[in-house]
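ok so for the tutorial part 2 we go from a plain amino acid sequence to predicted structure tokens. step 1 is just haveing the sequence, like this:
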Amino acid sequence: MPKPPRPTYRCSECGWEAAKWVGRCGECQAWGSVAEAALAPASRRAAGPVTAPARPIGQVAVEDAAHRTSGVPELDRVLGGGLVPGAAILLAGEPGVGKSTLLLEVAAQTARYQHRTLYVTGEESASQVRLRADRTGGVHDQLYLAAETDLGAVLTHVEEVRPTLLVVDSVQTIAAGDVEGAPGGVTQVKEVSAALIRMAKTRGITTVLVGHVTKEGSIAGPRVLEHLVDVVLHFEGDRDSRFRMVRAMKNRFGPVDEVGCFDLGPEGITAVADPTGLFVEHHHAGVAGTCVAVTMEGRRPLLAEVQALATLSAQERPRRTTSGLDSSRLAMVLAVLQQHVGLRLVTHDVFASTVGGARLHDPSADLAIAIALASATLGTPPPAGVVAMGEIGLSGELRRVRDLDVRLGEAARLGFTTALVPRPAGAPIDPRAEQPRTVEGMQVVEVPSVLGALLHLGLTARQARRQPSMGD
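step 2 — the prediction. this is what the tokens look like for a chain of 472 residues:
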């Protein structure tokens, strides 16, 4: 006789499965969430009818999957051209970041193009959404609104309205009546999302699902949800800033290295086509401890100002505080400055931040961080109109960065006069031998190392002012 199937244990938070019971989930590290899962009866599937016969791929029409504008240019930029009929899009973000406001704007713009739109809300009442629509100017006859939390009712609304665009806010609040578990659980999210995606594919309806995030920043629910959808978007932003960014983490119809910039204000959300001015402070005079970096957010160059402050520490262990920068990269830059430049910062508290809430993850910002730190330590402001870009190695050399011409063009467009960039491989290794060249009216100085960059700017220990002692 065949052996009975062994029981499996599944986490109710993320869907992780194990052969035996454990007290803590091995995937999401949640305590007490692993329980025995019901065994599905074994069955043998027979061949069934097909929806359409298979045909050569060259005979498949592509017109039905063409992009259609959403009415929001920055979102179209991230999606690769716009909304695709039958596509399933998952938009996730922290509470209060503006997901509902953005999607209500997308639904209103789609309705203005005479495309019927259905907005299903499970978190708010219909009157509350109407108030937001009045404030943002999103009221239109082709925009239909329904407040439902039952999957069957949502599918009924789709049958009656027959929309071109369906927005479900959010997938964690919709529940299927014939499935066990509370709304937002692993089983419910899998069933609800599978039903909505199946409906989107068969009827050619673009479906946008709003997803919650955990305290770690990952999308709540089973990981299979990200595999089922066609596009995964993350909506990011700081609560203290009006600036918001939409970043594509997965996109079957376009690139995944694009970002969209938005401004969230009292009148709603608006696209920001040129966000560089938000991250650069315009000083009337030279300020020590500042430098402008040119980073790439997807395919878009952004200029961001880095500020640094170094003061003598009264503690045994000096502080290293960052805002908008990677603390580990700051520690590496400090070590390089001490080892290869001679700046002694082991007794100083170091503070480094960005302007406007920008978050710099691009390694090309290393050189700007080093210049800002050296300028703050020596008390000497860098020359005006200087931008810096380059990744710093542990031996103090500068490594080349991608899309250098695009970065230089953006810096020249904004009026900067000098750019410090890494020297190409094979050039002379003398740190004093700069080779200036001109790009769009801006002088480009190629330096091989961080020491060469500081020598060119005059930020060396010989120009340092006397540092005050603890007894001063």
